[in-house]
Amino acid sequence: MNSPEEFREQVGQLYKALTALLAGFVVFMVLVVAYVNNPGLFESKEEGWVAVPVAEDDPDLIVDGIHQRTGLIDAEGLNTVISNCTPCHSAKLIIQNRMNAERWNTTIAWMQETQNLWDLGDQQEIIVNYLVTNYPPKAKGRRMALTDIEWYELDQD
């Protein structure tokens, strides 16, 4: 029969073995999830397994005139917009808010007053020119008139 000290030592060793086993299982599951989400993540080479670079590794990748990381149009001023605007908010916010120069300048002033945006200096003109050129306001017209509609009256009991 074991003494209490020997029993505690055996329990401690068992605990360490189970902890190591659990850690190995967690690493295995992380690799499985990574592979399931991106089967091309690993590629066999003569030297062994190596990670295959993915598009996200190139933060400046442009495909068909679109900056892949941000979704912004590749044009003069793009890098200035990225470095001054996307540190604080998504480029999607830029894309959806189409404004003229006056409204962009007013929005920038609001961000400086309320959101701690730094003074953009000469870069503000570059940013506003990029935004107005590539994301101008869209003309919004009225929908076409409804025709050939069979109207009915609601009963108001």
Structure notes:
The protein is mainly alpha-helical. The protein has 2 domains: about 5-50, no CATH class; about 60-135, Cytochrome Bc1 Complex, Chain D, domain 2. It is built from 5 helices and 4 strands. The chain has helices at about 5-35, 80-85, 90-95, 100-115, 125-135, and strands spanning about 40-45, 50, 60-65, 65. Strands 1-2 form a two-stranded antiparallel ribbon. It has a two-stranded antiparallel sheet with strand order 3-4. Strand 1 (about 40-45) and strand 2 form a beta hairpin. Helix 2 packs across helix 5 (about 125-135) and helix 4 crosses helix 5. It is elongated and about 95 Å long. The termini are far apart.
Rg from alpha-carbon coordinates: 29 Å
The helix content is: 40-55%
Q: Estimate nothing, just give the exact number of structural domains.
A: 2
Portion of residues in beta strands equals 5-15%
- Unreliable spans are none
Just name the CATH architecture of the largest domain.
Orthogonal Bundle
The CATH class assignment of the largest domain is: Mainly Alpha
Describe the global form: elongated
* Run of helices and strands: HEEEEHHHH
Distance between the termini: 89 Å
The number of distinct β-strands equals 4
CATH topology value of the largest domain: Cytochrome Bc1 Complex, Chain D, domain 2
Question: What oligomeric arrangement do these chains adopt?
Answer: single chain
Largest sheet report: 2 strands, antiparallel
- Helices, by number, come to 5
Average predicted confidence as pLDDT: 84
